[in-house]
Write a structure and sequence with these properties.
Layout: E1 2-6, E2 12-15, H1 34-57, H2 65-91, E3 100-112, H3 118-126, E4 134-141, E5 154-160, H4 163-170, H5 173-182, E6 186-199
Length: about 200
């Protein structure tokens, strides 16, 4: 669990799984981009070349054959990675071997009574992270300045591995227990499910 920041009322923004889950990938998701690939290629190629030049051409240094072999292999792998990316860069289309991964999200925001036990509500929500099929849980307090929040102060976001896992969650006893525990303190709520795709 990471602490991202805190709101003026002392509530914390919390996330599980790395990244913010929306614009940033989750910690267990690898997202391939042309910039990332170019940076990786440049780093490994430059490092290999500099080490080869430094070790092989510098007088008085005896380089074991296996070190030279490792350096040459690193350079060749870097060149191969670049070659594999050229077709992606040229037409702007993802590589054929990159699958489109969908992330199914369940969002809920609530307006709470002033006497609501925030710490207990947060703890109850975070316990949902233990459920099978839940990839990550996130929550935070409202920080919008647009004035369109309908006075909702707390938002919950769960990410699921797929539709079956969301369906199982919606009928689970753990969800029912969470909802019944916060019901006395909620004056309004809003629920929204959506899918977001990430190339990775």
């Amino acid at each position: 669990m990471q602490r991202i920041g805190s709101a003026k009322d002392g509530l914390s923004y919390l996330t599980s799984g790395g990244g913010d889950g929306l614009a940033m990938p989750l910690g267990n998701e690898d997202v391939a981009t042309p910039v990332r690939e170019a940076t990786s290629f440049t780093w490994w190629a430059a490092t290999s070349i500099v080490l080869c030049i430094g070790l092989l051409l510098h007088s008085g240094i005896d380089v074991p054959w296996f070190v030279a072999l490792i350096l040459v292999a690193e350079f060749l792998v870097s060149v191969r990675r670049l070659g594999g990316q050229l077709s992606w860069w040229s037409d702007g289309q993802p590589r054929k071997n990159v699958e489109q991964r969908q992330r199914l999200r369940h969002f809920m925001s609530v307006r709470l009574h002033p006497d609501a036990p925030i710490d207990e509500i947060v703890a109850a929500f975070l316990s949902l992270d233990q459920l099978e099929g839940v990839k990550s849980v996130e929550l935070g307090t409202n920080c919008s300045r647009e004035g369109k929040s309908r006075e909702h102060m707390l938002g919950f976001l769960l990410t699921f591995k797929g539709r079956q896992q969301l369906k199982a969650f919606l009928t689970s006893s753990e969800r029912a227990a969470f909802l019944s525990s916060i019901e006395p303190y909620v004056s309004d709520d809003f629920v929204f499910d959506f899918e977001s795709g990430v190339v990775g």
